[in-house]
Amino acid sequence: MHSLLNFITWDINPEIFKIGSFGLRYYALCFLGAFVVSYILMLKVFKQEGKSQELLDQLSIYIFLGTLIGARLGHCIFYEWDYYQNHFFEMFLPFRIVNGNFELTGFQGLASHGGAIGILTALWLFCRKTKTDFIWIADRLVLVVPIAGAFIRIGNFFNSEIIGLPSDLPWAVVFKKIDAIPRHPAQLYEAIAYLIIFVILWAVYSKNNKPKPGFLLGLFFILLFSARFFLEFFKENQEAFEEGMKYNMGQLLSIPFIAVGIYLIFRKPKPKEVTKKK
């Protein structure tokens, strides 16, 4: 990476190394880093609130699968359904057969809104199995989701994907693998926004580690998806069908989460939620 005049040129190979058809990408390391850091932070929360590490280990498996499956299905259904409705099994498999040849593709295409839905679904299944209070654990889980999201967006930056609109700002980036146009580094904008949200949520939790049930979850929904809605104005549309739309798919999918967040913050907790022992 080096500066040229008033913009930055980004021409990093997204693969650290490649052996045959297998390549280790920076994105994969960022994805792994997101879960490792999240686990360490959640372990701190669980110990502080008298929960067992075994419970967290079970939760981690559910969240990992929920994130991966939800994000993958979200991308395929929300953004590329025209293709995947005729290639159904490619949604679930990290490879495909082209003209009789095996091709390792990985899961190229993950949608954060789908990931959010997948996490909530996995969390519901986990709470149903372990008899854990859904709102209590959701309020704690959202403490680490923004830092995980920041890792993922940095991975997107290494992949030169989810690029921004053209810009003449001094920090504009030319993604050489895409074109020669200086653009907003939209992935980094999101990463920074998520880090700020991470700090805010931890500050609120540190000040009061027993907030009103649903408050942290609601605050998370409002902050993160409002940031996502606003930052979409700096990004290129991901799919052709979004051209001509006043608000793109990412913005439209953010609105329900913001609405739920507002409801959670201003709702009156049920008496049993106030008196229940944590």
From TrEMBL:
Membrane topology: Multi-pass membrane protein
Pathway entry: Protein modification; lipoprotein biosynthesis (diacylglyceryl transfer)
Record GO terms (molecular function): phosphatidylglycerol-prolipoprotein diacylglyceryl transferase activity
Record GO biological process: lipoprotein biosynthetic process
Enzyme category, top tier: transferase
UniProt keyword terms in alphabetical order: Cell membrane, Membrane, Transferase, Transmembrane, Transmembrane helix
Membrane spanning residue stretches: 26-47, 59-81, 110-127, 134-154, 186-205, 214-231, 247-266
Name of the protein: Phosphatidylglycerol--prolipoprotein diacylglyceryl transferase
Organism: Sphingobacterium hungaricum
